[in-house]
Amino acid sequence: MPAKGKHRRPKSQRFTRSIAVAGTGGAALALPLMGATGAHAATPTATVSSTQEMAATAQEKAATSAPAAAKKTATKTYAVKAGDSLSKIATDQSVSGGWKKLYSDNRKAVGEDPALIHPGLKLTIGKKAASSGTTESSAKSKSSTGSSKSSESSTKTTAETTTPATDTASSSGYTLPVEGATVGTAYKTAGSMWSSGYHTGVDFVVPTGTTIKSIAAGTVVSAGWGGAYGNQVVIQHADGQYSQYAHMSSLSVSAGQTVTEGQQIGLSGATGNVTGPHLHFEIRTTPDYGSDVDPVAYLRAHGVTVG
């Protein structure tokens, strides 16, 4: 019996090894199947955990971004201060789209001429004004019916809706203050942004750096900073009238200096209360604000063609 027992034990061991060896071959499918079953059993748990983590992360991001989004879309009211211009306000307040967007959003409050805004005027920043949207919708409607030219005019600013100033000089000793300019805001255009209730001159739309000329011979009465007019020059002429040139980027003359017709007195710019570069030109009966007369009629009376 012991011998048999010894005989059986090695056989049993060899049989176990056979099973183990067989298990390393293609016959031991039970182990992969059991492993696969374990893997499949673990996968749903891992997936659920991962999904929960992703959902939690998304919720955290949404909670974090919500205040930022609210801040981004929030609107505020800005009260215009002395020395402000739409371009300056747009820059200081980081208005996307610049002064044109700011003007478009507040066109009803500003009026038809964006060149001058008065202290105390309330501007909405960060939201498109309903009146602006109405204007754009009207423009699109007109365009769709074939009236694109009219639509384009209705959506442009007054400074952009221009006509050419065709002549530059005459034989009478007078000339246009700028060459190749277009006429923007006309004289006596009504608007609450002006203390007089209307535009006291005419705007010639020109890029910054354009040569500004004296319309006729005369004597420089003043040359320097003029508040809302920015850098300006006022010249007295032989007929007793005065010409004013405003928003200049630089001056080439000084008070007391005599000038001739067509002489350069400075360069155009966008100083003072403006929304873009242009020359504000006036004819006055005195050197002071409030004594204005029609500048276009004055030039035409002296043989200069305007528009």
Structure overview:
A hairpin with a 7-residue loop joins strand 12 (279-284) and strand 13. The protein is elongated and about 85 Å long. It is of the alpha+beta class and 307 residues long. The termini are far apart. 38% of the residues lie in helices and 19% in strands. Helix 3 (86-92) crosses helix 4 (98-105) and helix 6 runs antiparallel to helix 7 (148-155). It folds into three domains: 2-71, no CATH class; 76-155, Membrane-bound Lytic Murein Transglycosylase D, Chain A; 163-301, Glucose Permease (Domain IIA) (Distorted Sandwich). The chain has helices at residues 2-24, 30-73, 86-92, 98-105, 107-110, 130-144, 148-155, 295-301, and strands spanning 76-79, 122-125, 163-164, 182-183, 202-205, 211-213, 218-225, 231-237, 242-251, 258-259, 264-268, 279-284, 292-293. Residues 15-45 and 129-163 have low confidence and may be disordered. It contains eight helices and 13 strands. Strands 3, 4, 5, 6, 7, 8, 9, 10, 11, 12 and 13 form an eleven-stranded antiparallel sheet that branches. Strands 1-2 form a two-stranded antiparallel ribbon.
